[in-house]
Design brief:
about 240 residues, mainly alpha
Length: about 240
Amino acid sequence: MDRDIKNQRHTHYAVSAIGGFMGGYAIINFYELFANAQTANMIHLVEKLVGHDYTGLVYIFSALFTYIAGNVFCVLYRKFVGKNLRMLSLVLDVLVITAVGIITEFTHISFALLPILFAMPIQWNAFNDDAGYVSSTIFSTNNLRQATMSLTQYLTDKDKAQLSKTKFYWSTLLYFHIGVAVVCVASIFYGVHSIWFGFIPAVVAITLYVIRCDLITYLKIKNRRYSRKHKNDSLKSA
């Protein structure tokens, strides 16, 4: 396997662990709320409106608009800045962990999750196409579908390409839930303050991404030198 593709996979797995940690943190510590996606929030929104139960609508609308704002930010950043979102997303994850950690020192309310609701769609957009596969790092439904289908296709067709795909998606699911496991254990002892343990997968992801960038730079330099040498050899032979 190409070294850069291999590193892309490892970075994707580490970022998935961040997604698992953030999702698990919200569900465990904030009344079963899932901060990585908005499906449940939108269902609750309709349910409350139809039932004339307006309790919690302020949070639901705040969460929905914050999540939308994260996606809008991605579009505007790519349009007007044009740089890769990946490092920005990882730095933002670190800032979000810090922000939530500080907020929960003073209060334990659902609005403490808003920084996560902004950062997660940015992470999703930044790391959704690693190693040639479309995969979310912040929730598991499509990853489970892809993992199951590719495994079934491999078992029936013996297609090695499907085996590689199977490994990618099942590994993504595994590392996502390793992130969940970390926050589960941390929450037993530290409750809402377990957010600080999110630095573990964040630091690992940043380290792997930096290594990948260095590797890409190295390979580009190496290819340039090879091309230059090949050109010089061709001129000499001519």
